[in-house]
Design a protein that fits this description.
- This protein is α/β, with parallel strands linked by helices and 297 residues long.
- It is built from 10 helices and 6 strands.
- The chain has one domain (28-260): 3-Layer(aba) Sandwich (Rossmann fold), CATH 3.40.50.
- Strand 2 (58-63), helix 3 and strand 3 form a beta-alpha-beta unit.
- Helix 2 packs parallel to helix 3, helix 4 (98-112) runs parallel beside helix 5 and helix 5 (135-163) runs parallel beside helix 6 (186-204).
- The protein is elongated, with a radius of gyration of 21 Å.
- Its EC number is 1.1.1.102.
């Protein structure tokens, strides 16, 4: 029976691989294209901008910290393949005021032309047990991780529809596919991106606009370093089972628009659920045993 199941899974994966060229859109030529990357001052966003620049794109970096943006601009410019390429930096909080975001997108389109590809990388992470997370965190997670992608997308969509072309990418997380211990504030905000992307794709496909969602695992970024400071034991142990990915690796996959590959991540992730549950149960038992020992003393 087990062999039958394994054979079925393998056959399904091979089928996806074979038909993906038939159902996937034609690759977007990045040479000369205008790519907007939110959260582009560091981490995955900066690496994606660099990867696109290596392929001849014009880049608009959007982030809150102006000094980090200036530094990121210098790093991206080193990846140029011709002297016509331009990197534009705009400092704005994409999660707060839609009017400001719309104005920023209009500004960058006036300078570098219509947006061919939008990569929504702006985001933040936080881990903690549900009852110990400040209520304010739940609101801020949804604002940054969800609305911070809704606003830029809304700002570019009209022009893309008029031109009958475009790519929109959302950077979610493995925690946006399966709910994990310690991510009760973070996971829902990343799950929301999947719902948005799938719904939006249905609306945009007739206009030759394609939407992609990436679900990278823990990635070596400043955000991860900050998150690790407060991670519960269970969350840390779960994270250790999958290791840490480099942002350059994630960038290469995202830029290739590997829809099928990201779909496989979902299948692989489900196999980890059993071991994750075991880690949580083991930690709970150890904690209860420690409490019982304290009481006896």
């Amino acid at each position: 029976m087990l062999l039958v199941v394994v054979a079925f899974v393998v056959a399904f994966v091979l089928l996806l691989y074979m038909i993906s060229p038939l159902i996937s859109p034609k690759p977007l030529k990045l040479n000369g294209a205008h790519v907007v990357v939110t959260g582009g001052s560091s981490g995955i966003g900066k690496s994606i901008a660099m990867e696109c620049y290596r392929q001849g794109a014009f880049i608009t970096l959007v982030a809150r910290d102006e000094s980090k943006l200036v530094q990121a601009k210098k790093e991206v410019e080193k990846c140029a393949i011709n002297d016509k390429q331009v990197v534009l930096c705009i400092s704005v909080d994409v999660s707060k005021d839609y009017g400001q975001v719309e104005s920023v997108i209009k500004q960058c389109q006036e300078k570098l032309g219509p947006v061919d590809m939008l990569v929504n990388c702006a985001g933040m992470s936080f881990s903690g047990k549900f009852e110990e997370v400040e209520v304010e965190r739940f609101r801020s997670m949804m604002e940054v991780n969800y609305l911070g992608s809704v606003y830029p997308t809304r700002a570019v969509i009209t022009t893309m529809k008029e031109r009958r072309m475009g790519r929109i990418m959302f950077i979610s997380s493995q925690a946006g596919q399966i709910g994990l211990f310690g991510y009760t504030a973070y996971s829902p905000s990343k799950f929301a991106l999947r719902g948005l992307a799938e719904s939006l794709q249905m609306e945009m496909k007739p206009y030759n606009i394609y939407v992609t969602v990436a679900y990278p695992p823990d990635t070596d970024t400043p955000g991860l370093a900050e998150e690790n400071r407060t991670k519960p034991l269970e969350t840390r142990l779960i994270s250790e089972t999958s290791g840490v990915t480099q942002p350059e690796q994630v960038a290469k996959i995202v830029v290739k628009d590997a829809i099928v590959t990201m779909g496989l991540f979902r299948t692989i992730a489900l196999f980890y659920l059993g071991s994750f549950d075991s880690i949580v149960r083991r930690c709970m038992i150890q904690r209860e045993q420690a409490k019982a020992a304290d009481k006896r003393e």
